[in-house]
Specification:
single chain, 76 residues, alpha+beta, 5-stranded mixed sheet, 32% strand, globular
Length: 76
């Protein structure tokens, strides 16, 4: 089951960038730059207490920011 608090930033087939909530069928924001879409994903994840994921052009996760209940102090 998708975690609706998580947001993904990824490149679209039309060469633009989208910020999309996990499990959503439509993007919440479409931009011309990766930086704009990534900023929107981080803001939305921060508001919801989820995670923001940035996928590169190759489809692999390049970055990830967590805004939920991380253990403090971090393990390891």
């Amino acid at each position: 089951m998708p975690n609706r608090k998580n947001y993904w930033t990824q490149k679209r087939p039309d060469r633009r960038w989208e910020s999309k909530g996990e499990g959503d069928s439509r993007a919440s924001k479409v931009t011309d730059t990766q930086a704009e879409a990534w900023a929107h994903s981080r803001d939305m994840a921060r508001q919801g207490g989820g995670e923001a994921f940035l996928k590169g052009c190759d489809g692999k996760i390049r970055k990830r920011n967590s805004y939920g209940s991380d253990p403090h102090p971090p393990e390891g």
